[in-house]
Structure formats: structure tokens, C-alpha cells
Amino acid sequence: MNKNDIRGITVFLVVVVLLLAGYFYPRRPNNQKFDIPAEQPNIPVEQYPQYKVVPGSVYDGDTIRVVPMNVNGFPKDQQLRIRFACIDAPERKQPGGIEARDELKRILEMDGNRVKLNIITTDRYGRSVAEVWNGYGLIQSALAGSGAVYPYEQYKSDCPSWDAVQRSGQFAVKNKLGVWGNPSAVKPWDYRKK
User: Fold this and answer.
1) Containing H/E element for 20?
2) Strand partners, 81
3) C-alpha torsion angle, residues 40, 148, 131, 73 (rounded to 10)
4) What is the tens place of the pLDDT at every residue in 35-83?
């Protein structure tokens, strides 16, 4: 046997082992991780304050209301309106709008509707623009990777984790997931102009 034969056999065995490991390795339930490849920036999330999502406040795929975790009840004057930085979801009346909202609800429920916020700025409607995290990672990245939302390049300067969100979005584009599966889809920022 020569070196090329040994290399060929070695490569073959490695491939077989990897295939068998993938087949027999136990799959995690969807509630134990994001089930799409969401890029996660290396940011010390534990430093951000924790909030609870107000029940019934997930109106669309990129806006929620929250209260600090130590607040009992949900008085209006203690609620923060949060606009997700880095992304733009289809409007509810657009194709994909309800699906974006439902995907956001699903991701929030994975961690008991608890989130951590990196508030970046305030928009013209008085909402806090923030990166939103739960125990599984950056929610914007998960939404972009599933194709539920668009990475919002116009406001990438307000997005410290832009590279992660953009890479997750590229995965959705490549695999024609969600909004990227409809070639005639109108981007939400264009839809609002109409």
C-alpha cells in the first residue's frame, strides 16, 4: 500500500464516521436552541438589563413592549416600546408579515418571554431601538437566518452586531428561506413608501 491508498482509506473512514455520528447523535428539541444557523456575536450579554415581554405586545416581527423584570403588573408608564435594531420585518398586511410575527413569538417563548436589551437610540416614534437577546442568542440574527425579516442595511450604523445579522441573512438568501423564497416580495421599507 502506498501513501495515496492510505490517505484515501483514511478520508473514507472519516466520512463514514461523520455520517454515522450525524445519524445516531440525538437531536435536540427545537426549544433547546435556535433551529436555524444564527450567527452570534461575541458580546458579554450578561451586562445588559433583563426585561419581561408584555403579554400581547408582539404586534409584528420587529416590535415589542417590555417591562423590567422586577416590576409586578404592567403599568403603561413603566413599559418600554422596543423597535428591533438591525432588521425590518414585513408589515402585517404584506405576505410574510404574520409569519414574521409568529416566528418572533416562538423565539421569545423559547426563553419564557425574557429578554436582555442593548438600547442604542430612540426612533422618531419614541421607541427604543435595541439589540434584543434571550438565553439562546441575538434574536435579530435568528429572525434574519430564518428569512422572517430583512437585515436593514440603511440603519446598520445603529447595529453593533451588524456582521452577525448580515451573515444570518445571507444564509436565508442562499437557501431561499421565508421572505427570500418569494422573488416578487416587496421590501417593507418600499411597501411603506406606497
Assistant:
1) helix 3-24
2) 65
3) -120
4) 555 666 666 777 888 999 999 999 999 999 999 887 666 666 678 999 9
> Distances in Å between the alpha carbon of 13 and those of 2, 24, 25?
17, 16, 18
- Kindly compute the dihedral angle of the four CA atoms of residues 56, 57, 59, 65, in this order, to the nearest 10 degrees: -170
Strand 80-84 and strand 128-134: pairing?
A: parallel
Q: Which three cell numbers stand for residue 77?
A: 408608564
pTM, entire model: 0.77
User: Which DSSP string corresponds to 69-108?
Assistant: TT--S--GGG-EEEEETTEEPPPTTSTTHHHHHHHHHHHH
Q: List 67's β-bridge partners, or say none.
A: 52
The rounded distance, in Å, linking the Cα atoms of 117 and 128 is 10
- In this structure, are residues 129 and 83 in contact, taking their beta carbons and an 8 Å threshold? yes
Neighbour tally for 9: CB within 10 Å:
11
Which of 163, 165, 26 lies closest to 87, judged by CA? 165
Q: Where are the beta strands (DSSP E) in 19-79?
A: 50-53, 63-68
